[in-house]
Amino acid sequence: MEAIILAGGFGTRLRPLTYTRAKTLLPILNKPMISYLMEMLPNEVRKVVLAVNYRRDQIEEYFETNDFGREVVVNDEPMPLGTGGAVKFAEQHITGTFLVLNGDIICSLDLKKMIEFHRKKKAVSTISLWPVENVSEYGVADIRKNGNIIEFIEKPRPEKAPSNLINAGAYCLEPEVLDYIEKGRLVSMEQEIFPKIIEDTGRFYGYKFDGYWIDVGRISSYIDVHRLLMKNKKIKKIEGNNCEVHGMLKNYSCIGENVYIGYNTLLDSTIVFNNTHIDNNVVLKNCVVGENCVLGRDSDLRNTVIGDDETIMEKTVLDNKIVWDKPIPVGYPDRQIGNVIEK
Ligand code: GDD
Ligand code: MG
Predict the structure, then answer these.
(1) Which of 21, 99, 104, 341 to mutate to test the pocket of ligand 1 (most atoms within 8 A of CB)?
(2) How confident is the model at residue 331 (pLDDT cuts 50, 70, 90)?
(3) What CATH superfamily is the domain 2-215?
(4) Full-prediction pTM beyond 0.70?
(5) Which of 84, 223, 264, 302 could make an SS bond with 187 (beta carbons 3.0 to 4.6 A apart)?
(6) Fold for domain 236-323?
(7) In testing the pocket of ligand 1, which one of 339, 340, 341 has its CB within 8 Å of the most ligand atoms?
């Protein structure tokens, strides 16, 4: 069996961290996000197609140096083709029933059980489902008791949402789904293809599961996923190798390798990437700090994200800011292009 991991897209809601890296390589507890997806795949999956475009060189390099015991193909789109277009672009690798995973999901879904469910139902498509309150940010399903989905709406206005069950971003699909996707153009799986399959086949199913689920698409959920996974592991902080910590890490903070934390400095629900130096008497609450940064002493930063290679002067006070003082990479969009919210 093959699995396609959707690892393209710019990750605009995670800028400036994604100005310099692929979203799926963002560290979670100091391990790239994509490694969690690789580890979640059942044994039956022997080949993984990584659907990439933006920053594909970084993804390629990561897989050259990290072996997950499966064949990995890096499938580079000439331009972003959207969630459906990217699946179509991987068509030559598909030999039968296959999986598709959004590359920014961390969850406890048991894919083996979902595949069994899919086979039992003789479904054309099975998608994983998760209940949420803010449905408008997701794809929403109207589901019958037997799991049959009769309607799917991507990012509906709250009053148009048919339920509180959203597309959790993992699919088990039959190859005939590929025939619904037009080649060579931007196609949204959720907006264009799912509704057509429901209408044409009636064999579109939803699979609910227990445990946890997070779309790591926003800075707030990026911090949340650290808290969630550390709680699961019953730990409250993480320090990478080679760190020098004089201050304190609390509330599920995590620092990478070669990080210096000065005297009387406090990290509260804060993530710091590799090779960053934080001086004395600094407070960081709900912040993410990129690689190779220097933060001057006596600063107070809250709800702030700092991109790679930034310097923060001493005595800086910031709340709810994005720090990036270099040019934005050429071609990087100023907003999300694929699955946009209905206006
Ligand atoms: N290869 C490729 N090409 N991948 C892409 C492209 C593209 O053009 N556009 C997006 N992706 C990848 C993203 O990197 C991400 O892993 C996945 O496809 C989904 O795209 P997002 O941009 O993260 O979509 P979303 O979070 O707004 O909505 C999707 O996920 C929700 C669950 O988190 C939809 O699938 C919703 O229906 C779903 O509820
Ligand atoms: Mg997402």
Answers:
(1) 104
(2) confident
(3) Spore Coat Polysaccharide Biosynthesis Protein SpsA; Chain A (3.90.550.10)
(4) yes
(5) 84
(6) UDP N-Acetylglucosamine Acyltransferase; domain 1 (2.160.10)
(7) 339
In Å, what is the CA distance from 216 to each residue of 27, 59, 107, 129?
Answer: 11, 18, 10, 16
Do the Cβ atoms of 12 and 55 come closer than 8 Å?
Answer: no
Half-sphere exposure of 234 (CA within 13 A, CB side): 0
Q: Closest Cα to residue 273, out of 288, 252, 294, 283?
A: 288
> Is pLDDT at 342 greater than 60 in this prediction?
no
Looking at residue 340, what is its pLDDT?
Answer: 44
pLDDT at residue 336 in the model: 60
Please tell me if the domain spanning 2-215 has the same topology as the one spanning 236-323. no
Q: What ranges do the domains of the chain cover?
A: 2-215, 236-323
Altogether, the residues listed in the chain come to a count of: 343
Cα dihedral 27, 18, 308, 311 sign: negative
CA-nearest residue for atom 2, ligand 1, is 8
| Protein residue closest via CA to atom 30 of ligand 1 | 169
Cα 139 to chain centroid distance, Å, stands at: 15
Angle at 71 (CA atoms; ends 68, 73), nearest 5 degrees: 110
* Residue 151: strand pairing partners: 142
Rg (CA), the chain: 21
Ligand 1 atom showing the smallest separation from residue 5 Cα: 16
Closest residue CA from atom 26 of ligand 1? 217
For residues 206 and 210, give the distance between their C-alpha atoms in angstroms, rounded to a whole number: 14
User: From the centroid of its chain, how far is CA 328?
Assistant: 21
End-to-end CA distance of the chain: 39
Write out pLDDT tens, residues 118-164: 999 999 999 999 999 999 999 999 999 999 999 999 999 999 999 99
Ligand 1 atom with the smallest distance to the CA of 53 is 1
7 C-alpha to ligand 1 centroid (Å): 8
